[in-house]
Amino acid sequence: MTAPKLMPLAIGLFAVGVLAIIAVFVLFATGHSDLPLWLNVAATYLPAIGLALGIIAVIRKARQKKS
Predict the structure, then answer these.
(1) How many CA atoms lie within 13 A of 60 on its CB side?
(2) Cβ(2)–Cβ(60) under 8 Å?
(3) Do 39 and 23 form a contact (C-beta atoms < 8 A)?
(4) pLDDT value at position 62?
(5) Could you give the CA distance from residue 21 to residue 42 in angstroms, rounded to a whole number?
(6) Among 10, 36, 48, 60, which is disulfide-ready with 53 (CB 3.0 to 4.6 Å)?
(7) How deeply is 23 buried, as exposed, middle or buried, from its count of CB atoms within 10 A (0-12, 13-18, 19+)?
(8) Tens digits of pLDDT across the chain (67 residues)
(9) Where are the transmembrane segments (predicted)?
């Protein structure tokens, strides 16, 4: 996957992960304590995966400009 295609994917995964984090906080604040596993997994891993892919995309783009 090239850097221009990788960056929108990274931004999308990060954004969905942040929305999952917000959903977890809102649900917890409204009294829900037994949240679904998929929501906890999304809130835990999607922002980290999105951030990592974004860093990889930026590094790949910078290396392409040098050569």
Answers:
(1) 13
(2) yes
(3) yes
(4) 87
(5) 8
(6) 10
(7) middle
(8) 666 789 999 999 999 999 999 999 999 999 998 999 999 999 999 999 999 999 999 998 888 876 6
(9) 7-31, 37-59
What is the pTM (predicted TM-score) of this model? 0.86
Say if residues 46 and 13 touch (Cβ distance below 8 Å).
Answer: yes
SS (H, E, C) the chain: CCHHHHHHHHHHHHHHHHHHHHHHHHHHHCCCCCCCHHHHHHHHHHHHHHHHHHHHHHHHHHHHHHC
Tokens at 18, concatenated: 């942040």
Write the single-letter amino acid at 35.
L
